[in-house]
Amino acid sequence: MEIIVTNNYEELSRKAGEIIDSQLKKDSASVLGLATGSTPLGTYKELVMSYEKGETDYSFVSTLNLDEYVGLSPDHHQSYRRFMNEHLFDQINIQKGNTYIPDGKADNLAEECERYEQVIDEIGPPDLQLLGIGENGHIGFNEPGTSFESGTHVVELTPSTRQANARFFDTMEEVPTHAVTMGVQSIHKSKKIILLASGKRKAEAIRQLIYGERDEQFPASSLKEHRDLTLIVDREAYALVNEKG
Ligand SMILES: N[C@@H]1[C@@H](O)[C@H](O)[C@@H](COP(=O)(O)O)O[C@@H]1O
Description:
By secondary structure, the protein is an alpha/beta fold.
């Protein structure tokens, strides 16, 4: 595992943006695995900026997103499809047909999970997967207790995850109870993984990721076995490393 510690969120975003841009320069038909949440927002801004400067071209790029809320239509203000369109896809020259996100409104969710896993195998695996981390160690929406062997599946969100994401909704009742997510094993298919964490809120999760054992109660710990994992964390998120080790 490689660890890059930055002074702040802006520097973290720049670093992540640079790594993705260099992947695109290396292979113009790259497959990117993308994540939602507030952490990658700065990275997406960086990607848009370098695109606007003419440094990158997304004509042949494909993207695979990790997850989507169950029950939200693509244009719902909190759907992950809308998030990705607004923060990245609408601002670059990617072909919308090359952007893949699970369908949280599918009539048959079990079939949707199977379909999405096939998409990962056909389009992917991603050359590079961007990941955030939940305060409880979740990746995508793989909550504590998820099997490390899991493929794309439907999850019931834990109260703590619903609470953490409630800030984006008007009321707690509106926060979806379920999501479709790539499984831990699906995530592991990526050739390279970059996990971002910023701020004090993530410090305990980063401490546990670095010092803890591989344990299904802490989904991010599965990544310790990945062949190419880079953590990009800012000082605040790294604050408990070294201290309590
Ligand atoms: N499904 C997403 C995760 O992919 C993300 O990593 C996590 C952390 O979000 P944030 O970056 O806003 O802290 O939130 C959600 O639960």
